[in-house]
Design a protein that fits this description.
By secondary structure, the chain is an alpha/beta fold. It is built from 11 helices and 14 strands. Helix content is about 40%, strand content about 20%.
Length: about 375
């Protein structure tokens, strides 16, 4: 896996290189201090992955992404974003412009050793999620890895799902909908929620997207803008209201529970142990929906790395709720929906348009 590091900070360039050095199968083949230099490097070098800062002089990350698109350069881009609200907003723009994933820069208050450990912990798994798929694609079609685009789940073997009772999604009229996503999720959610514009939303929608703080706030704002419905981060103890979209805040599990005293369903936030190495966890949200709503809930598992959502989907199916997963061809990474597929814990599978149409039928 050949990697180009693009950042105007010498410190961050050296830390990213140090985090990658020694990892089997990964090599930093070059670096650049801005997008203009990086484009020259891409013309000169064979590159699979670009680690891209967004705030740089002369040509910033967003401008570079636009130029890559114009030139037909399809290397997988992982954005290195500041953890501020401004940085989070820029990261959302970068994902819509074609970046495959992002990580938040470490807090500047920590030591260099702490920053290096944080970068290594976050960045290496992000690269690895694409590594295997690029290699399999290379073997499958004989094309060099450089230039492989971000949608790299195409050569994964199709897994036959376990036999289980399937429900027609058109027959499901849930009282609540849950959505889980990770890598590729923000762009996928954009596509799905754009279909809700000028459409009724009679029930609540709760979303667990793997993102740090500030990034989830920007995501909620974006979903509100494109859907035309109220969307915000969930707050601890607030009632779950029809017609509202709730996003789990970064670094918090978001669940729902019925309050006997208030006689209504409330959102619960906690910072309990991570599940599947993430917080918020999709499994926690889905399991709480089963406990609170029983069979009157439906969930969607969209693109993402890992297996988060599989246990929750099995719980939904066990309670006779509905489960739809994004298909392999349209997923950036078919980890989360693929694990649900392998477990047989789903009723339907489709691309984002099909997921959006199913959601529309459910929320009217």
């Amino acid at each position: 896996m050949r990697i180009l590091v693009v950042d105007d900070s010498v410190v961050f360039r050296s830390q990213i290189k140090a985090a990658i050095d020694g990892i089997d199968g990964m090599t930093v083949v070059g670096s650049a201090a801005n997008g203009k230099i990086a484009l020259e490097r891409l013309e000169q070098l064979s590159v699979d992955i670009v680690i891209l800062d967004l705030e740089m002089p002369e040509m910033n990350g967003l401008e570079m992404l636009g130029e890559m698109h114009k030139r037909g350069l399809k290397q997988t881009v992982i954005v290195f974003a500041a953890p501020s609200l401004t940085g989070a907003a820029l990261a959302m723009e970068a994902l819509r412009a074609g970046a495959a994933d992002f990580i938040a820069k470490p807090n500047s208050a920590g030591s260099l050793d702490e920053a290096l450990a944080g970068i290594k912990k976050e960045l290496v798994p992000k690269i690895l999620q694409f590594k295997a798929r690029i290699e399999k694609r290379t073997l499958a079609d004989g094309v060099g890895a450089a230039g492989a685009g971000p949608r790299l789940g195409m050569t994964l073997p199709e897994v036959k799902p376990a036999t289980g009772a399937k429900r027609l999604l058109s027959s499901i009229k849930p009282r609540i909908v849950g959505i889980g996503s990770s890598t590729g999720g923000p762009t996928a959610l954009d596509t799905v929620f754009a279909h809700l514009l000028h459409q009724p939303l009679a029930i609540p929608i709760l979303i667990a997207q793997h993102m740090p703080p500030n990034f989830t706030k920007c995501l909620a704002k974006r979903l509100g803008e494109i859907s035309g419905h109220e969307a915000r981060e969930g707050q601890h103890g607030e009632p779950v209201k029809p017609g509202c979209i709730y996003v789990a805040p970064g670094d918090y599990h978001m669940t729902v529970a019925f309050s006997i005293d208030k006689r209504e369903v409330l959102i619960q936030l906690d910072q309990g142990p991570k599940r599947n190495s993430v917080r918020p966890a999709v499994d926690s949200l889905f399991e709480s929906m089963v406990t609170t709503y029983g069979s009157s809930c439906a969930v969607f598992v969209l693109t993402g790395m890992g297996e988060d959502g599989m246990i929750g989907a099995k719980a939904i199916k066990g309670a006779a709720g509905g489960v739809m997963i994004q298909d392999q061809a349209s997923s950036v990474v078919w980890g989360m929906p693929g694990s649900v597929h392998a477990a047989g814990a789903f009723d339907a599978m489709g691309d984002l348009s099909e997921c959006a149409n199913s959601l529309l039928q459910m929320v009217k």
